[in-house]
Amino acid sequence: MPLVWLGYCYRQASVGVNIGKVCYVQPDGCGKLDGIMKRLALLLTSQFVLILAGVFSVAAQEVVCLECTRADANAAGISAADIEAYPAPAVTMLAPSEEFLYDRLYQRVNGAVEIFDAPNGTPVRTLDAGFNFLTTFTPEGEWTQINVGEWVRSEVLTQVLPSRFSGVLLPDGELPYPMGWILVNVVPSRTPGADPLDTDLPLMRYTTVNLYANVEIDGWRWYQVGVDQWVHQTLIAKVIPVERPAEVDTQRWVSVDLYEQVAIAYEGDLPVFATLVSSGLAEWPTNEGLFNVYIRYDRTIMSGAAGQPDFYFLEEVPWTMYFDDDIGLHGTYWHDGFGYRHSHGCVNLSITDSNWLYNWASAEFDFTVPNDTGAAVYVYSSGEYRDQTE
Prior knowledge:
By secondary structure, this protein is mostly beta strands.
């Protein structure tokens, strides 16, 4: 699905943890309905995207540079020898879940559509226009079966391929430097605050980088990510482990940083996994606070806002864990905008990440106890967005 840019939603600078984000307009749904599983027989042609991964500690060099020259700022970076000793975060990227990425055919519904009981048959219902996605059987010419006894014209559907992005497993020990994800394809600057050179090679989106040093210039952070490579804070998402809140009542728990758009899974005090997420847009914010997963579904339908401009209907949303009424952690097949606010309130994950988190968190459920709650979810913001365009 093509993503539409609204503009920059910059975050208010604060010491050491600032990055800006770009908003996408299409929200996901966060209403709950039980899903109906389909039998799908299909072969999809895969598109492979090379993505690197990483996570970090908190020992990078930091300089606040209010009136200093760029040369002074660049001097704050660490040496080439130190960088070459630790060229990339020592983490393990989750392998994309091929089993679940392509076991269904995901389709965007274009506009309001009539649903028929058979090809060229009788209309049985109408799906209103909105942010609508279905899982379908393999198209048969001009018609596509969407459920048993339900067909639509193939021309109203557009196939979407799920994101192959995945998060990283963290080592037992602290990493020598913080790390972050590059959020857009970007050519690094040779010095903090400078324009990049056209002759330099870009860093690709979803690349993981060590954050060796950072300098504040005119209220914005620049991170050193390599030898003579500096990147503006708005183009990086940083992993920031937090102390376990005293109220967390489970061994396994998850933090969601709405500012960084990063989720971290913990076992006790130890962070074991980190990834990019997409939380709620400003109109439908993800609530901050401490919660527990109270119900979960391996597949479910999400729908809401009937009769309104933001109506949505999403079939077979994978690996959903509700923790705040109708807000949950769940897999997402309809966008690849991780690292940016994007949703109708839920915390979007890639399919690979949601499957891992769902299985990992199972240890906190006692399925023999009625109404048992699961892993704690701590939602907070490590900074504040700036709503301005630059």
